[in-house]
Specification:
Layout: H1 2-23, H2 29-48, H3 56-84, H4 92-112, H5 117-149, E1 158-162, E2 166-167, E3 170-171, H6 173-188, E4 194-198, H7 209-220, H8 236-250, E5 258-263, H9 267-277, E6 281-286, H10 293-307, H11 310-329
Parallel strand pairs: 1-4, 1-5, 5-6
Antiparallel strand pairs: 2-3
Helix pairs in contact: 1-2, 2-5, 3-4, 4-5, 5-10, 5-11, 6-7, 8-9
């Protein structure tokens, strides 16, 4: 009975994760279910087998991850600026490192400065928001890797390729990787699917991203009859919405299945948005340069967090309620 109680949290979280994943793998909540399952399993295994070394990596991770992350982000920032130049988006690793430092330092500084209780409460609420932010980041990092790593033995009717900017009329290395990944999938599935290059023409681009991708695919031997260009979109949401409408016009099947081919860091957000717009699709990733991945993933996480803002609003709302109660009845 004691053994069952020991493993019960892991069993419960594992069952919840499997139920949620089988129902819909493209949901953000799956990241937390999987994260809690892994944590409970490791803890239970350490107690059951009396092998406390199992918890050592967790303890070391908790203790040293902030410092390692700060150092890694600073090194990554230097590498990124050397290779890509400086811009606001390229400053994300530096800002992320600064956020970690501020998160750890805010409460001690507020206490040392003997700030009023209301201000300390506000700092505590912001620190709680930071805790949720970093927990969400870790959970999504682990789950997004799991999502794109699991094999999918499915036949796709359409293969959507997400745009990523051009250099004149030529594909950037990032976009070329996506096109080549889609072409490999198209070949592996017997060259039956329709390829959907998706991306409009930016202000600094000579042609649409869809047209540039289509030219590259035609040069590889893809027949024009198996290309359906979506050349109006300017965002990921529009990529998927316009592609959904285009597929509905081209397909006679009631619910055609699509593959979303994009860079690995972008896979899960694209899959989430596909679910939201009603597109039956799986995300598949092309490789991203290692030095670019941290910046890109931070940007993806921020974009997802903007859609799941309610935990932060709840925390700050509770602070406002308690503060009002304190000021009223003190």
């Amino acid at each position: 009975m004691a053994d069952v109680a020991l493993w019960l949290p892991a069993i419960v979280w594992g069952a919840i994760f499997l139920w949620s994943y089988r129902r819909e793998p493209r949901q953000f909540r799956n990241a937390f279910f999987f994260f809690f399952f892994c944590a409970c399993t490791l803890g239970a295994a350490a107690v059951y087998f009396k092998q406390w070394w199992i918890t050592l990596p967790i303890a070391l991770a908790v203790a040293f991850t902030p410092v390692i992350t700060i150092v890694f982000m600073l090194v990554n920032e230097v590498m990124l600026v050397k290779r890509e130049g400086f811009s606001l988006s390229h400053a994300l690793p530096l800002l992320f490192a600064c956020a970690i430092v501020a998160w750890f330092g805010a409460l001690p500084v507020a206490h040392a400065a003997r700030l009023p209780g209301v201000v300390v409460g506000f700092v505590l609420a912001v620190t709680a928001c930071g805790a949720w932010f970093f927990l969400s980041f870790a959970a999504l990092l682990v789950y997004s890797w799991l999502y794109r790593s699991l094999p999918r033995r499915r036949r796709y009717d359409f293969i959507i390729i997400h745009g990523a900017g051009l250099k004149g009329q030529e594909l950037t290395p990032l976009l070329a990787g996506r096109v080549e990944r889609a072409y490999e999938l198209w070949n592996a599935q017997g060259r039956r699917a329709t390829l959907v290059p998706s991306g409009g023409q930016g202000e600094d681009e000579e042609i649409s991203e869809a047209e540039a991708m289509a030219r590259h695919l035609r040069a590889l031997g893809v027949p024009p009859t198996q290309l359906a260009l979506e050349d109006r979109s300017t965002t990921t949401w529009e990529n998927l919405s316009f592609s959904r409408d285009l597929i509905a016009e081209r397909s006679s099947a009631p619910d055609p299945r699509s593959a979303l081919v994009t860079s690995d860091y972008h896979v899960f957000r694209a899959a989430m948005y596909a679910r939201a717009v009603g597109l039956n699709a799986d995300g598949l990733g092309s490789r991203t340069a290692r030095y670019y991945f941290p910046t890109a993933f931070i940007r993806e996480f921020i974009a997802i967090s903007r859609r799941y803002w309610w935990p932060y609003a709840t925390i700050m709302g509770l602070w406002a309620v308690f503060t009002l109660f304190f000021l009223t009845f003190r």
